[in-house]
Structure formats: C-alpha cells, structure tokens
Amino acid sequence: MQAQAFAERARRELQATGEKAPRRPAPADRGLTAQESRIAHLAGDGLTNREIGARLFLSPHTVEWHLRKVFTKTGVSSRRQLGAVLRSGGMDPHRPDRVGGPPGPR
Question: Cα 53 vs. chain centroid, distance in angstroms?
Fold first, then answer.
C-alpha cells in the first residue's frame, strides 16, 4: 500500500510526545510481489516446487514460473543463492534488480 507518508506522520507525532519510533529497514525482497516473496522464501528454505505448490495451492509449473521471475528480479541463479540473499537482506534497496554492490544510475 506504500504508506510511508502515514508512517512518517506517526513517527513525528510520537516524537512530539517524547517517544521514539524505530525505523524499519527496507525488506530484502523489495520489488517482489507478495506471491513471489512467499515462493522465494519457501524455495530459499529448501522446499521443492511440488512442496511449495502444495503449501500455496499452486501447480509446480506455476511455482516454477514465479521462481523464474524471482531469479530475474533478484539477479541470482540458484535456490541456495536466493536463500542467502533473502536472509542477509543483500538486495540493493534502490534497485530491486541488483543484488549487493553500489547502486547503479537510476
């Protein structure tokens, strides 16, 4: 929903009362859809396409399709890399298509 404006307003109001609101870091899977994120995390945890499909009520073919999109967006080529990137938060928050390293031109 992209409610950053509301979050910022709430943070300022809390600050005015003397409280502090912690800032949350950008999620590692920024740029992924909700379905892609669920599938990416399950694949990163070592589940097969068939197991992921059974959990999410999808066909293994549909899971494979989403994973191809996840691999493209994250710039990784294996499930092992995907799990490591998601656990470490290694995606560049400014460019969801780039993993790690300095951000490129926008």
Answer: 19
